[in-house]
């Protein structure tokens, strides 16, 4: 069976099986899961303290290198395995006000409330829907032939490098979403308020990383400032790499807006499956990606605790095989290469009209 041959009954059956898998995992959540996130937070905080302590001697090259790397790892863990996942509500079931989606503010220039509005709602509801999901190319990159080519895309390999280095700023600006129902002065005021929130967050982050901690290192101010800047760039490049490899490699599907017309839960699940990609690796690698190396499982169940994604991945893959749906996965090098090939290829003007995909309309679903 191929994806284009799924029937209404197939989609309903797929939804039942994935719902059952979700219910099974959520009914089993307990102490081992709570211990996991508490342990990760302890390690992250310990690494940050260790990194910043080493940078008190940042004028010494070994201390600078060790402190920068340690701080970068701490920032990666805080952003990806902790911040991103906490703000998805993955740990809300614990009823811990300190580890809750409504209270967590991450070490990033993007304000949590703006990020949650754009990412949790728009991206995870309208995944890969052109014109609805603003994460398709992040508004500046052409990553699929269905996107209209513009002359500015010729330079996208260059500004994708800059986006990677300063990814948190790109995300902050990208997350500046204003309610479509607002008009006129209300809309402008909402946008100004969003910009002010980003400005306050940037000042807070700069004050911490580029003023307070460098000042604490005394005469080593400049070397500590450089270390903090480097740690932030490392974190940004890593986050950009993992996220892009989960959304843009290989044959990842995009969809026209009409795909949403009457979309059933089974069809929504199928859209997540064919619109996401995984990265293979070991436990430490998955931890450092925030388990977004299991992007398929994350898109299916964004509020499921991330430590469970590796557990359900073989079963999700088996369901894809059962229903003839692709399960996109590959090594980090394979996914990075595939993603960059797309970015370079689609920088050039198209030679022919974009192809039509099986997912573009309801014609592929029998009985509709």
Automatic annotation (TrEMBL):
Ranges of residues in domain Fatty acid desaturase: 63-329
Signal peptide start-end: none
One GO MF term attached to the UniProt entry: oxidoreductase activity, acting on paired donors, with oxidation of a pair of donors resulting in the reduction of molecular oxygen to two molecules of water
Transmembrane domains' residue ranges: none
Gene Ontology terms describing biological process: lipid biosynthetic process
GO cellular component: membrane
Coiled coil: none
This protein's name: Acyl-CoA desaturase
Organism: Actinomadura spongiicola
């Amino acid at each position: 069976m191929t994806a284009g041959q799924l029937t209404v009954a197939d989609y309903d059956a797929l939804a039942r099986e994935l719902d059952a898998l979700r219910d099974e995992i959520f009914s089993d959540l307990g102490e081992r899961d709570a211990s996991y996130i508490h342990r990760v937070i302890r390690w992250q905080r310990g690494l940050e303290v260790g990194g910043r302590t080493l940078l008190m001697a940042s004028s010494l090259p070994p201390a600078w290198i060790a402190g920068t790397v340690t701080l970068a790892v701490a920032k990666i863990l805080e952003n990806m395995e902790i911040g991103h996942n906490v703000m998805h509500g993955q740990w809300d079931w614990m009823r811990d006000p300190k580890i809750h989606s409504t209270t967590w503010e991450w070490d990033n220039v993007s304000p949590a409330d703006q990020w949650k509005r754009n990412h949790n709602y728009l991206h995870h509801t309208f995944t890969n829907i052109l014109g609805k999901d603003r994460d398709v190319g992040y508004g500046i990159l052409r990553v699929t032939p269905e996107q209209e080519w513009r002359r500015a895309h010729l330079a996208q390999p260059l500004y994708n490098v800059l986006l990677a280095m300063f990814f948190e700023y790109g995300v902050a600006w990208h997350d500046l979403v204003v309610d479509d129902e607002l008009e006129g002065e209300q809309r402008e005021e909402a946008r100004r308020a969003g910009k002010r929130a980003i400005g306050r967050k940037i000042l807070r982050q700069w004050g911490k990383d580029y003023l307070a901690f460098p000042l604490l290192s005394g005469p080593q101010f400049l070397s500590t400032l450089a270390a903090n800047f480097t740690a932030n760039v490392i974190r940004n490049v890593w986050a950009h790499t993992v996220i892009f490899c989960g959304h843009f490699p290989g044959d990842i599907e995009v969809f026209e807006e009409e795909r949403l017309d009457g979309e059933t839960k089974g069809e929504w699940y199928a859209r997540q499956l064919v619109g996401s990609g995984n990265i293979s690796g070991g436990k430490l690698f998955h931890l450092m990606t925030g388990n977004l190396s299991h992007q398929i499982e994350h898109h299916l169940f964004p509020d499921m605790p991330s430590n469970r994604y590796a557990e359900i991945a073989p079963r999700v893959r088996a369901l894809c095989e059962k229903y003839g749906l692709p399960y996109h996965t590959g090594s980090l090098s394979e996914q990075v290469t595939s993603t960059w090939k797309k970015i370079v290829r689609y920088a050039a003007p198209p030679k022919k009209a974009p192809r039509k995909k099986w997912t573009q309309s309801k014609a592929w679903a029998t009985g509709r």
